[in-house]
Amino acid sequence: MLRKLTALGVFLTLWAPPHGRAAVDTINIFRDGQLITGATLVNGVVSGDEIVSSRLATEGWANPRFELQGLSIDLAGVANIAQVKLRIIRSSGDAPNYTDILLYNSNGVDWYLTNFPFKAYDRTDPFYMTKGFEHTNLYGEHSDGAHYGVLTGIGINVGNPVVLHITTIQLLVDRDAAALYPDDPQPLDSWANGRLGNVYAVSGSDRIFRDDLGNSLAKGNTVWNGERVLLSGARRETVAFQLILECAPGADGLIDVGVTFTGLTNGTSSIDNGAAQEPGNPYNYVGKHIQLYRGRYIRMHDAVGAFVDPGVAEASGTLGRFTPEPLIPFEAEWGGAPFSVFPGTVQNAWIDIYVPADAVAGSYRGQVDVEVGGEVVRTVPVQLEVHDFSLPTTPSVSSFMFASQIPAARMGVSGAEAVELERNWYQFFRRHHTDLVVDTTAPPYDLFTESTGYQGPGEGTRFPYSFMTFYGAGAIAQAEGESEWLAWLAQRKEEIDRDSPGSRMVFYLWDEPSHAFAGGIPAFLDLVNRIGPFFQSFAAQHGAETLLYATTWRHDVGDNPYLGAYGGRTAEDRQAMVEQGVEIWHYNGPQTYQDFVSGSRIQGWRAYTDRADLWWMWEATAAPSGFDYLYDSVNFTNQYGEFSVGCGLFAFPGSDRLIPKRSAGLNGPLGGMRLFNWRQGFIDHEYLMLARERDPAAADRIANSVVFGTSLSSGLPGEERSAGYP
Questions:
Q1: Which of 507, 499, 509, 501 is nearest to 442 (CA)?
Q2: Closest CA to 583 of 614, 546, 619, 543
Q3: Which of 308, 294, 302 is nearest to 346 (CA)?
Q4: Of the options 3.40.960, 2.60.120, 3.40.50, 1.10.10, the CATH number for the domain spanning 12-180
Q5: CA dihedral 444, 445, 450, 453 (to 10 degrees)
Q6: Are 509 and 528 in contact (CB under 8 A)?
Q7: How far apart are CA 660 and CA 534, in angstroms?
Q8: At a CB cut-off of 8 Å and minimum separation 6, what does 279 contact?
Q9: Which residues, other chains included, contact 633 with Cβ-Cβ below 8 Å and sequence gap of 6+?
Q10: Under a CB-based contact definition with an 8 Å cutoff, are residues 201 and 101 in contact?
Q11: Which burial class, exposed, middle or buried, applies to 338 when counting CB atoms under 10 A from its CB (0-12, 13-18, 19+)?
């Protein structure tokens, strides 16, 4: 595996880990005061049993940095670099706020680990101050050790002045590459006597676990009267339900299970896919009003992760259980339909019905057929009452989810396919009553028309904002003169006008300045007051609408004349912001797998009670580059050694070059139950706005009873515990 280890005199320890896993080779780069042969230090010395660095980052990020050079550890024989973990144990002294680990290599690849857990506090964790190479920047594109060759050195980049005291530097190499991405259990060809048990429906905000046979909701619930599915919706609304299929306990499961739902009719008109432009393409929405998904069950971590209230995590019932989350279109090459159901388990089928803008009001009827082996074995009636009103084409509150990138490399697409992929991601989010912002790129204005394969919510409308920056001002913040700022703003306007002409140009000045800006709020306001006049001058000269935004609160920044959007913690603050013309922007909310799935839905209600102009989610695709999206649950770790289960992960790659055995083979995203509940929350918002037109007091009472009578767990403004909010 590591061909040069013996020749180099590297000390190898065979470690037999618990739970029967394969042995791990431990390569001691520094241990017990001894450096590996040939290694040298830059900006650090060995002192007794530890390495003591110089004072790092005194002149800014990674300047100076600590380096360990002279390594010659051959990684070319490592089949998958996720087999390798780096352990660096800091003993005492300063703790860096944020750390990247540079991995110097013989092939000259720009390679690094992000957010190393130097602030970890749980010494009982077997991976204390340890991080796997699946978290490196290039893992999703190049997982083989041969791409990197020989590891020649390590550099430690920190952002705050620190002196590091290091007792241990090791590489841990797991011998079993196959264990990284286990196979799914497979149905048996011998199954012949599997028996279909209960078949019933639940709403999209109910979560039925894989082992949950005989759930009481089978007797009746908000969409099921024990015999038929009962739904209602307005024009331009997406209405959804889940069909729950139980396989009876025993030796045999069910093979070749299908669910068919062709649509609904009122006798003279129908809601179906009869006019679908591409019936087999889940990303072409022209004429497509019905979409079926198979739920994918992921075994959740059995411990409570970060960013969720432990009481909520316990009450939601997910701990250690197979929980439905990703929703895979039936048309997928893998993971869709037909499918198998193992004995003594349940399987959900999610059914979306988009009510077209020209639907005739009244009662529509249809049926869902459940087939086993091509034979219909159960029929479920469905009734939809279409209201005689429509949801607005332009939403009453803007919403979006942020993604740092569309995972084209992980999905293995380029060229024309990558262009199509980008369109499919943007349109997918719009079809689900929200939007997607990728890095600083808001949805291009011309994507949502029939000519581009789109029909549905927001057809023909533009997302009202474009972003000049996201999560901080970047290098331009250092510019002093007005002319330099005006030239930069003009360049950004030219770029934005190509994709979203006439949109409000948002300058995301800083992320959470109350604790993340050097000098705190006073220093942050000094910056705002220095550059604010430049934005006003630019707007006057160019007729542009600019918006200075920061994730902060009115009670922190006061009535600043230049900031145009931030948060309002109290009703009094929000009223003052409305009167001053300042936009109310709130973000995040319950976002982990361990929250109730309905927590994502409540955010649309909170947007109503908070009078928000915009609500956004910090990430839709948060995961390390080697993450097994459709198998693993822990997608997030931080510098404290904490983990989170599903935090910031609402959409999944529709194809997977790295793990092809779990690739749906689709050139677009996969949604999930929490994303679709986010969707339903903003649909609910439209109903609340319509109700407010009739009776504002009654609408407010309804919304308040839901929002303030619910434990939302984390991340919503005004709550004690807030993930990702100041």
A1: 499
A2: 614
A3: 294
A4: 2.60.120
A5: 10
A6: yes
A7: 51
A8: 273, 288
A9: 298, 299, 300, 301, 593, 645, 646
A10: no
A11: middle
User: Distance (Å, rounded) from C-alpha 583 to C-alpha 157?
Assistant: 37
Contact 70, 40 (CB under 8 A): yes
How large a percentage of the chain has pLDDT more than 90? Answer: 84
Residue 562 pLDDT exceeds 50:
yes
| Domain segments of the chain as ranges | 12-180, 196-390, 398-707
Q: Is the pLDDT of residue 527 over 90?
A: yes
Pairing, β 270-272 against β 263-265: antiparallel
Position 28, amino acid: N
Percentage of the residues of the chain whose pLDDT score is greater than 70: 94
Check if the beta carbon of residue 340 is closer than 8 Å to that of residue 203.
Answer: no
Asked if residue 6 has pLDDT above 70, the reply is no
pLDDT digits (tens, 9 = 90+) for 427-465: 999 999 999 999 999 998 899 999 999 999 999 999 999
Residue with the two structure tokens 């902060």: 552
Among residues 36, 30, 107, 43, the alpha carbon closest in space to that of 71 is found at: 36
pLDDT digits (tens, 9 = 90+) for 613-622: 999 999 999 9
CB 626 within 8 A of CB 82: yes
Average model confidence (pLDDT) across the chain: 92
The yes/no answer on whether domain 398-707 falls in CATH 2.115.10 is: no
**Residue 345 DSSP one-character state:** -
Q: Residue 38 above 90 pLDDT? A: yes
Confidence of residue 55 (pLDDT cuts 50, 70, 90): very high
Amino acid type, 619 = E
Stretch 15-20: mean pLDDT = 34
CB neighbours of 454 closer than 8 A, spacing ≥ 6?
285, 286, 427, 430, 431, 447, 448
Q: SS3 for 584?
A: strand
Q: Map residue 401 onto helix, strand or coil.
A: strand
Instruction: Please give, one letter per residue, the 3-state secondary structure of 208-232.
Output: CCCCCCCCHHHHCECCECCCCEEEE
Half-sphere exposure of 677 (CA within 13 A, CB side): 26
> From CA 670, how far away is CA 347, in angstroms rounded?
18
Q: Where are the beta strands (DSSP E) in 409-510?
A: 436-438, 465-469, 504-510
d(CA 544, CA 535): 9
What superfamily in CATH does domain 196-390 come from? Immunoglobulins (2.60.40.10)
Torsion of CA 125, 126, 127, 128, to 10 degrees: 50
Tokens of 217: 């909701």
**What is the distance between the alpha carbons of residues 280 and 465, in angstroms, rounded to a whole number?**
33
The answer to whether the pTM exceeds 0.90 is yes
Spell out the SS3 assignment of 257-321: EEEEECEEECCCCEEECCCCCCCCCCCCCCCCCEEEEEEEEEECCCCCCCCCCHHHHHHHCCCCC
d(C-alpha 245, C-alpha 213), whole Å: 9
Residues 6+ positions from 197 with CB-CB distance below 8 Å: 213, 246, 247, 248
Q: Which amino acid is at 398?
A: S
Q: Which two tokens stand for residue 220?
A: 């009746």
Strands 546-553 vs 669-672: parallel, antiparallel or unpaired: unpaired
Q: Which residue type sits at 579? A: E
Tokens, residue 604:
């649309």
pLDDT bracket for residue 710 (50, 70, 90): low
Contact 251, 343 (CB under 8 A): yes
Answer whether residue 257 shows pLDDT above 90: yes
Chain segment 459-473, per-residue pLDDT in tens: 999 999 999 999 999
> Rounded to whole angstroms, how far apart are CA atoms 608 and 578?
14
Residues 288-310: tens digit of each pLDDT: 999 999 999 999 999 999 888 88
